[in-house]
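Protocol step 4 of 6: structure prediction from sequence.
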Amino acid sequence: MKPLLIVALLIASSYVPAATYYKWVDDQGVTHYDAQPPEGQEAQSVRTRRSASSDQADALERLEQDRARRARPGEQKSTTAADGAVSEETRAACDQHRRNLAALTEKPLVRRENPETGEMEVLDQEKRAGILKQTRAAVSFCDSRGA
């Protein structure tokens, strides 16, 4: 379980919350993005959104938090009910991981929203391999919990 926790912490530490950026085209026709609008130039506000990988990181983090809560005596909330059933939140996160794994393994191209620009991009093989590894770990964790 420690490797899964380490992966979740690494992913969470790379999380960048949604922010507003500005987009403009200079005199040479080059498109620029920056956190500050340019002086004397009209710029379009672009709101970034969270990517699928950060959603996966959030789901992994929730699973680890639930696991930590179960380990603390006297804690009320748990991922499992008194009869041993898995919570709906955990089940929903695990279902999302399985859908993500199916997309990563079955589709020749996988697109996601770039968290910096807000535009859709095709995952390169390196990013895809990293996300695939994280998703497989999450699904494995879910399977071990019966979720």
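Step 5 (inspection) to follow. Residues 97 and 139 are 6 Å apart (CA to CA).
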